Amino acid sequence: MAAISREEVAHLARLSRLAVTEEELDTFAGQLDVILQSVAQVGEVAAADIPPTSHSVPLTNVLRDDVVVPGLTPEEALSGAPDAEEQRFRVPRILDEDVAS
Amino acid sequence: MTDLTRLTAAEVADLVASGGTSAVEVTQAHLDRIAAVDDRVNAFLHVDTEGALAAARAVDERRAAGEELGPLAGVPVAVKDVLTTKGVPTTVGSKILEGWRPPYDSTLVQRLRAAGTVMLGKTNMDEFAMGSSTEYSAYGPTHNPWDLSRIPGGSGGGSAAALAAYEAPLAIGSDTGGSIRQPGAVTGTVGAKPTYGGTSRYGLVAFSSSLDTPGPCARTVLDAALLHQVIGGHDPRDSTSIPQPVPDVVGAAKLGATGDLTGVKLGVVTEFTGEGAEPGVMAAFRESVEALAKLGAEIVEVSCPHFKYALPAYYLIAPSECSSNLARFDGVRFGLRTGDDGNRSLEEVMSLTREAGFGPEVKRRIMIGTYALSSGYYDAYYGQAQKVRTLITRDFTSAFEQVDALISPTTPFVAFPIGARTSDPYQMYLADLFTIPTNLYGGPAISVPCGLSDGLPVGLQIMAPTMADDRMYRVAAALESTVGTFTPPAL
Lengths: 101, 491
Fold this sequence. Notes:
Strand content of chain A: under 5%
CATH architecture of the domain at 4-259 in chain B: Alpha-Beta Complex
Oligomer: heterodimer
Number of strands of chain A: 2
CATH superfamily of the domain at 4-259 in chain B: Amidase signature (AS) domain
Helix content of chain A: 25-40%
Helix content of chain B: 25-40%
Distance between the termini of chain B: 20 Å
CATH class of the domain at 4-259 in chain B: Alpha Beta
Order of helices and strands of chain B: HHEHEHEHEHEEHHEHEHHHHEHHEEH
């Protein structure tokens, strides 16, 4: 049985903000199925009482002295932006027109 | 006349310091070599000719003024395109960052500049460091100098190929699941993954933040150690940076080069010496183990029962972290923006931008990660993988109670032909079978050339406990002292 359907892959693509093509969906559905069936092997390990590891370095609450250091200028920060205006990143509209009006 | 491109980094540094050559001459020799061979190798995505010559002139001026030079002053270095370089293009092998010139230097690059090394340019890589062959670069594959029809490993294939092609004596890589060590193995060069947190991630474009580790690549163990010393150490700008000095890796490499391993106990990982590796790889590995025993090392077998689950655990953890990290490529602050016709919404533009800017492997991993983190699957996939990570760490801890370091082949197979594994993504993942456990544990590991199989290089991997990076350099240098270094056929 397939671990993942074409419809589920389409849903993942939407969640991932990837405007994939129909052709890509066909390819990815098969490939993701192979990958997911393989990685599902982790389920074979009896680990109910094992604590999870998120990080290998046991550091917590890393603090530094509160010293002012130079940062990027607005020009530097915006230097790679696809679009900028009035020292800000310019984005396409974020609200539907009927909501905005 | 000496061919300056054939010298080790240590030799170049000595020659520059003694006035036997100038940093400009050394740099020009490497730029000439790049011009002569890189159209066939494709190790470099960007060659910074002017920047390199300016840095070299600065070293020569400091020497002329009688200033003290660092141990690698005047030595050229190639930098994987995953590290930000102020004003110099940084693409991470992706179309989504094509043309981006970062406004700041990564910590590693700052340290390279401060040490007086000369950055030649940026090297090719699998897009966002996801891959084991450099075929997933958006800018075409890098070719292995040993056989141009074969892959140079990945993701840092450009850095490894630049070394093997004598385009640079030193290079920087980054290792999330083997991206320094596996390219080192298949190109006959040395690649070291430092302890996680031993080198700074500041300015390293993030793939999987709990695993990403930048590190040194070179043609000799001593050169790798010299570079490790320069780039390593605490960085307050990386919250996972370990606040301790770099272990004495240079001293350890020099000690190892004496060829004496008396009192060193090495464990051959049982799980990595059975099926899974090519016969030619195993034969070269076995011969090297005998060579290490002749140098005085005690060899035992050590079982690490959970290592076989490292690959599946990694391919859940790394994609999960990547799906989160790569959300920043949204067409707003840097890089590509596609489809902004004035009518489409931000979300539509974002989806079109990411669709156009990311290649297939990056898309696959983002979707796998999104799946593993989604409600309903989280516990069975991501949560379970994190528990397996604990068990793998315990395998290492228990092994290091018995032995000083673990050894295995670096990778199951020698360099494969370009195109051989791209149609089946999971076949590509198997290249990292032996390198991944170390990343999940966080310790250091090095790949050192140990022999040839059908004329192609084989690497031996040495894995050491966290912050015992010096130990792996000692063993690696000892092996190098007996098996020697390996030179590819002339290009």
